[in-house]
Amino acid sequence: MRQITVTEQLLIHQKASPMATGRFTRLLNELILAAKIVSREVNKAGLVNILGLTGDINIQGEQVRKLDEMANGIIIHRMQRAGLLCAMASEENADLIEIPPQFAHGDYILIFDPLDGSTNIDVNVSIGTIFSILRRTHEEGPVSSEEVLQKGDHQVAAGYFIYGSSTMMVYTTGDGVHGFTLDPSVGEFLLSHPNIRIPEKGKVYSVNEGYWNYWDEPTKKAVSYFKSTDNKKRKPYSLRYIGSLVSDFHRNLLSGGIFMYPKDSRDPKKPSGKLRLMCEANPLAYVVEQAGGAASDGEKRILEIEPYELHQRTPLFIGSKEDVFKAVSFYREQNA
Length: 336
Ligand code: AHG
Ligand code: MN
Ligand code: MN
Fold this sequence. Notes:
Blueprint: H1 6-12, H2 22-51, H3 67-80, E1 85-90, E2 108-116, E3 127-135, H4 145-148, E4 157-163, E5 167-172, E6 177-183, E7 188-193, E8 204-206, H5 217-227, E9 238-239, H6 245-255, E10 258-261, H7 277-290, E11 294-296, E12 316-319, H8 321-335
Parallel strand pairs: 1-2, 8-9, 8-10
Antiparallel strand pairs: 2-3, 3-4, 4-5, 5-6, 6-7, 10-12, 11-12
This protein binds 2,5-anhydro-1,6-di-O-phosphono-D-glucitol and manganese (II) ion (2 copies).
């Protein structure tokens, strides 16, 4: 069967989504090139680890340090030159990343987690890159932080790359969710999962149960629900927890289920849990809602949260609609 490339898919959807303009196609293709390079380096890193080598020597003569920084550098280097961005924000950078004056500017803002689940690379478990695209709200001039701190409902596109047994890209521009698999023999992402829909209800729950003693009562009730059985019809859900958000999310997107990263009492500096709103929760919430699922912080839709800070964190309940609503109901009970 002749398969469709990303560019063809965007052109097909050109009329349906205002985002599928030529400029956006170029932006996505630049991001795809960056992801192909990250994928190559991530695969090699495992080898380097075994051989104890330190990996490449970069342009400044330094050894390639952590994978997060390596992936971060590749994406920033590539996307600065795309001529379509007015600013970037990365999980790895405290502040906004400017586009140097020598490069053409555009009106898109890219927010990304360059490498999600990076602690897993040493044990060869799949990891990924998560991206969110906003359009600036001012016509020109330096990008202000409130142009970046837009709620998730304002995203014009979002998605992720997953570097697993195959390298995949999943994205939405507001017209459904489409999955592409990299064919390394031709170096193209080909449409493999058209119009992904997440099952209304799953059979899997993903949460790090090791933190049980740090959770509040509604969280314990929610997690207990998914593993309980009423001995007659309802069987317990299976627990699947990879430790890479992208991988746990992707499995649940395709086969149904819920991922939870609740707030916990471990770190008073992080009262809202570990995951970041702008570069993790928002993009995946946009994807899951476009696929018929739901994403909540325990009280409201993730996409309605008004951000106040670039790296703010949020509790995250995301996946099959019925499962997310069930989990959130335990918090509603408490707050009723
Ligand atoms: P990152 O590697 O970008 O920091 O993200 C790691 C996140 C996420 O991928 C995963 O779901 C979560 O950390 C796992 O955290 P715990 O080890 O605390 O369960
Ligand atoms: Mn992450
Ligand atoms: Mn990361």
